[in-house]
Design a protein that fits this description.
The complex is a heterodimer of chains A (about 140) and B (about 600). Chain A has about 140 residues and is an all-alpha fold. In chain A, about 75% of the residues lie in helices and about 0% in strands. Chain A has one domain: Up-down Bundle (Ferritin), CATH 1.20.1260. Chain A is globular. In chain A, about 50% of the residues are buried. Chain B is mainly α. Chain B has two domains: about 210 residues; about 300 residues, no CATH class. Chain B is built from 19 helices and five strands. Chain B has a three-stranded antiparallel sheet with strand order 3-4-5. A two-stranded antiparallel ribbon of chain B has the order 1-2. Chain B is elongated, with a radius of gyration of 28 Å. Classes of the chains: A mainly alpha (about 140), B mainly alpha (about 600). Chains A and B meet through helix 2, helix 3 and helix 5 of A and helix 10 and helix 11 of B.
């Protein structure tokens, strides 16, 4: 579930997303990925808990902001696979920080006045969370 | 408890003027004005006592009835009223905006200061349309407590003695046989009687000192404004700012106690995370003092309790990650103040004015300085107590949310038998049970840590000692119950020290089993058993947490359990569609498809 392959897949998924539903789906998957990866690392970590859990909490908030957007199509996130080694997860999280500005930008585009009110609100919230998660990840990966 | 103007500061001013009045020469010329002001002083003194009588105060624990100290307060109030009745009423020159110097002026200023002190106490209470007192701040139950009543009685006894001596001096200056002389001569025995009546209510020395300290620490109910943490805050000022954030956090919890907002997963995740970090920082701070020559063992035990609390909050935070609610967003007064608290404690603990949760792990430990022990202890005590207060209400709200099916989970966390084409589904018992257990453990561990810190704070006379005294003041009296209460660890207080932390609700403490490292080595007679509704942050009215406690004692419902409309479940305006809109009912696949082989 958590590995560099997932990061590449999510990057492509976001880049190819054109419709609102596709962007929302990509956003939900990205946030869910980060929340899970950071949360898993935080659970195993001692001194890194404050930083990693802050990332996980912010990502989970973004995930749920998108998760309740009216235009998000139904569907499930993929089932868990075996957890990879910690360095892979950390590297994957670091790589995610490159994707988040694009996600925030696309979410802001979706939050334009023409969109449904529920989507607008969800996307504004998600865009802010994408910025925040990006900042937090950048701080963590800069160590 | 040092963040706002306190009653002690106001009473100090009154005492200063009373002492000055005692030194003023008495002249016949101003005797009439002095008598008017003396009567005003006595009237205010009587009001202090009238406020403590059962007719005015809701029955406090062990205080109702016509016997005991309650009756003494009533008798003293009547005696002071009789003393005042013989003196002339009205307005003297001393009642003017700028009273003149001299006896009348000093008495006038003393009466005004005492009235201001009484007003300060009343900022914590309001009156309902039907005449009942209503709590307006977390301090209200403390003000209504027997400990504060006893402390007020002690003060009034002193003031009555001072007034008696002034009345006698004034009487000696008046023409013999005059109405003024007769009025003053008539007042002195009543004032003496008031003092005599109150004398038996006085507790032993250490308790009297504790009561006086508690009384003096009562602040005005108006809370200081939030001060955002800045990277320029000097380390020496951080403990005071931590106290402010903790006070504000307690007030925020109090404000939403009777009207809780729907459970919000975003906020809960952050609260659990920030609580874990805050207790970790507190543990780090205390750990640096565990070489203390006399209190090393107790400080180490408190640090261990904080470590347990931190671990428990971590588990609670992680348990929240796959859970969602309809209510979203992390901005609220409680989360704001908790974030301030976490940042400041982190900066104090890691000696980094710019510390934040994403700062690199720093192995540098702040060097322990014994001169800073009490302020460090107070900061950790204030923070841990505030977290315990927050945890009690949060657990109650989460318990209700779990039982009313307001919690949702990612569908991929459901067991294999469920096939739901949505991202969220109502949480099952297997999701909510670990969450509630994690919260119960976190909350109980935090209370346990707060109890340990309270005991040390009282013993070391730390700045947070009034907080411990306030908790003790609201503890219910021993009821003879044999129910086991959590143990704060070996007592280091004298036999007269109050049990500082017995004032958390019983539902929060029940069945807490400390880890092996936390188990006390000696019994703790100081703790009052049977803690229940008289806690500092409880009200007289029926409370939601009581219902929550009942629910917590039951098993959680399974997927098919019908909803119970215990709390409002509507989605707040502007929050978007409800969770139910985005989810489908949880039905095992077997109900819709053919059963699996």
């Amino acid at each position: 579930m958590v590995g560099m392959g997932n990061v590449d897949g999510l990057r492509v998924q976001l880049a190819e997303a054109a419709e609102a539903a596709e962007v929302l789906t990509a956003g939900w998957d990205i946030f869910a990925f980060i929340a899970e990866a950071a949360g898993r690392l935080a659970a195993e970590s001692g001194e890194l808990f404050p930083a990693l859990m802050s990332v996980a909490v912010a990502a989970a908030e973004g995930r749920d902001a998108v998760g309740f957007a009216p235009s998000l199509p139904p569907g499930q996130h993929a089932a868990d696979e075996e957890a990879p080694a910690e360095p892979d997860t950390l590297r994957a999280l670091g790589a995610m920080s490159d994707i988040l500005p694009a996600l925030a930008s696309q979410m802001r585009e979706l939050a334009q006045p023409g969109a449904e009110a529920g989507d607008r609100q969800a996307c504004r919230h998600a865009a802010g969370q994408a910025d925040l998660v990006g900042e937090l990840l950048a701080a963590v990966t800069a160590w | 408890m040092v963040t706002a103007a306190t009653l002690g500061e106001v009473l100090d001013r009154a005492e200063e003027h009373l002492r000055a009045a005692g030194r003023c020469p008495v002249s016949l010329l101003e005797s009439m004005d002095a008598m008017v002001e003396l009567r005003r002083l006595m009237t205010v003194m009587g009001h202090y006592l009238a406020d403590r009588t059962p007719a005015h105060m809701p029955p406090a624990v062990g205080w109702a009835g016509k016997t005991g100290p309650g009756q003494a307060v009533i008798d003293a109030r009547d005696a002071i009223s009789q003393a005042a009745a013989g003196l002339p009423a009205g307005h003297s020159r001393a009642s003017q905006l700028r009273p003149p110097a001299g006896l009348a002026g000093e008495l006038g200023r003393a009466a005004t200061a005492l009235a201001a002190g009484r007003d300060l106490l009343h900022t914590h209470l309001a009156t309902s349309p039907d005449g009942q007192w209503l709590d307006r701040s977390p301090w209200a139950p403390v003000i209504r407590s027997p400990a504060v009543t006893t402390a007020v009685a002690t003060q009034v006894m002193r003031w009555a003695g001072q007034a008696e001596r002034i009345a006698a001096r004034l009487a000696a200056a008046c023409p013999p046989g005059s109405a003024a002389e007769q009025g003053l001569q008539g007042a002195t025995p009543w004032l003496k009687l008031a003092g005599l009546v109150l004398q038996p209510t006085q507790p032993p020395g250490p308790d009297a000192a504790a009561g006086k300290r508690l009384l003096r620490a009562i602040p005005t109910a108006r809370l200081p404004r939030r001060r955002l943490p800045s990277s320029g805050e000097p380390a020496t000022g951080l403990p005071a700012e931590i106290t402010l954030s903790a006070e504000r956090l307690r007030a925020a919890v109090f404000a939403t106690h009777d009207h809780p907002a729907p459970v919000n997963a975003d906020a809960c995740r952050w609260i659990a995370t920030a609580s874990a970090i805050t207790t970790q920082a507190s543990q780090h701070l205390l750990h640096t003092h565990t070489h203390h020559p006399t209190h090393a063992q107790h400080l180490a035990a408190a640090a261990a309790a904080l470590d347990q609390a931190s671990q428990a909050w971590r588990q609670a935070a992680i348990s929240w990650l796959p859970i969602a609610t309809a209510a979203r967003g992390t901005t609220s007064p409680a989360t704001n103040d908790l974030t301030d608290l976490m940042l400041r404690l982190g900066r104090l603990a890691w000696n980094d004015p710019g510390w934040s949760p994403t700062s690199p792990p720093n192995s540098y430990r702040r060097p322990a300085e014994d001169s800073q022990l009490t302020t460090t202890l107070a900061a950790t005590h204030q923070a841990t107590d505030a977290l315990a207060t927050l945890g009690i209400d949060t657990l109650a709200a989460i318990t209700l949310a779990a039982h009313t099916r307001q919690l949702h989970v990612l569908t991929r966390t459901l067991p294999d038998g469920y096939d739901i084409p949505r991202r969220y589904a109502p949480a099952l018992t297997q999701h909510t049970r670990p969450l509630l257990h994690a919260y119960q453990h976190a909350q109980q561990a935090t209370i346990h840590a707060a109890q340990r810190l309270a005991v040390i704070a009282v013993a070391l006379d730390a700045p947070s000692a009034p907080l411990a005294l306030a908790r003790a003041a609201c503890a219910p009296p021993p009821s003879g119950s044999t129910k086991r209460q959590p143990d704060p660890g070996p007592s280091i207080a004298s036999g007269h020290q109050p049990a500082p932390a017995a004032a958390y609700p019983a539902s929060a403490e029940a069945d807490y089993e400390p880890s092996a490292s936390q188990r006390p080595t000696a019994p703790q007679p100081a703790l009052a058993p049977g803690a229940s509704h008289a806690a500092t942050h409880t009200r007289d009215a029926p409370r939601q947490p009581d219902r929550a406690a009942q629910l917590a004692a039951q098993d959680l419902p399974g997927p098919g359990t019908p909803r119970t409309p215990i709390v409002r479940t509507s989605t707040p305006a502007g929050r978007g569609p409800s969770v139910a809109h985005r989810t489908t009912a949880v039905r095992p696949r077997a109900q819709r498809r053919s059963p699996r082989p």
